């Protein structure tokens, strides 16, 4: 029962999900794969994203994880059902948890969604929200500049803040009471997005909500980790490990002392 | 696939869960049983609560529900595992969802819980919280006066406000950032509890959180209701149907127009 939760992403964005898993489920072991050599997935064709996701899932399967988490909205939008049909263990995406949190939160019935071009074009949030609650109004905006800001480590700069503010302008005039950060990279930009949207709009982090849904699913399957040993996490990336490790350490700082971490660059891609 | 979600409670408290199910899952059909003749469950022995819960589950099983929701913290604390072992469908309690929401929310690591004497004595929230996150500090307080205020329909009176304020005093001096309303009756008293605790403490409604967890579990089982017909809800109580209907109508007002409702008094108890 010490099997890991395997988390995959197009790059470093999924680390926001990892951070929340480490925070909300401190007894769980995490194995992470960031496809930093091929990031971003947002502008890629669905066929390519499905292929890449399959490759990473095949790689992660060697560790016999108890769950696969597709911590990338673009990959969740196009590859979730495909991966579900290929493995026996639960596969959790990042779209449904954010949608459910928005449904719980909204009182006005108008929900905002920001994401990559791929996610917005797929209308995956709209489908997920309306499948459960058909009366909702959904306002979406693609923010293609946000992921490169995060992947290049510039997410705290003044340039980042200004880019975020200008990008969000078109969505500000709608009567939203919540905005789904429909890309796992976006929590890196939370401060700037909060400033851009103003105090009346609650930001919903798909990372926080996905970690909570992981908790619920493991609980209902009787698979939550027990407190009998310290988990050892493993991190893999397909690109430059120096930049990856630097961003991961800065982002996961608080949780890096508690548990030993193994860093590896695999050869699959 | 038009099977209902069956919700049971010791009285009217579980209507707070029903309200959230109707709000967050407007396509789902609900069958409710309130054991108003034998309320409250809080001061009863665990054996008695298990027996009563089994009787109600046996009654509800005739409707072939797709899920049983034990919308009563006292019954969840003592009867959840027993009921799980007796039925094939998922059984959802109200304790784990509130615990998970508190874990997601807390940054200070100190979580408050208020509930009936039965729930607090069972330490069920403490176990649920520490099973997932052993480092948390938990502060609990039994509020035995709250349920009678709600069941007698007095939840908006000045007397109710004053009772709530005085009862909460012992828990106010702890550095809580969230307080779990560990009894499904308590959302009726949300205004008074919020006033009593001050603006820095976020109230976590086990009703809201349970509805969201119901959504997650049905989704992962492929059992969410489709938008192809208007659900007809059914409400049963074991005691005086006049008072029950009055409280239910006042509480669920907004959702009573949309769907036809059947009111019945069964003969099981």
Overview of the molecule:
The structure is a homodimer of 269-residue chains. The first copy, chain A, has eleven helices and ten strands. Chain A has 269 residues and is α/β, with parallel strands linked by helices. Chain A has two domains: 146 residues, 3-Layer(aba) Sandwich (Rossmann fold); 112 residues, 3-Layer(aba) Sandwich (Rossmann fold). In chain A, the strands form two sheets. A six-stranded parallel beta sheet of chain A has the order 4-3-1-2-9-10, sandwiched between helices. In chain A, strands 6-5-7-8 form a four-stranded parallel beta sheet, with helices on both faces. In chain A, strand 9, helix 11 and strand 10 form a beta-alpha-beta unit. The two termini of chain A are 30 Å apart. The mean pLDDT of chain A is 90. At the A-B interface, helix 4 and helix 10 of A face helix 4 and helix 10 of B. Chains A, B: Pfam families: Asp_Glu_race.
Topology readout:
The structure is a homodimer of 269-residue chains.
Chain A: E1 5-9, H1 15-24, E2 30-34, H2 46-61, E3 67-70, H3 73-86, E4 91-93, H4 95-105, E5 110-115, H5 117-122, H6 124-132, E6 137-142, H7 146-151, H8 158-172, E7 178-181, H9 190-197, E8 202-205, H10 206-220, E9 233-237, H11 241-256, E10 261-264
Helix pairs in contact in A: 1-10, 1-11, 2-3, 4-6, 4-10, 8-9
EC number (chains A, B): 5.1.1.3
Family (chains A, B): Belongs to the aspartate/glutamate racemases family.
Pfam family, one (chains A, B): Asp_Glu_race
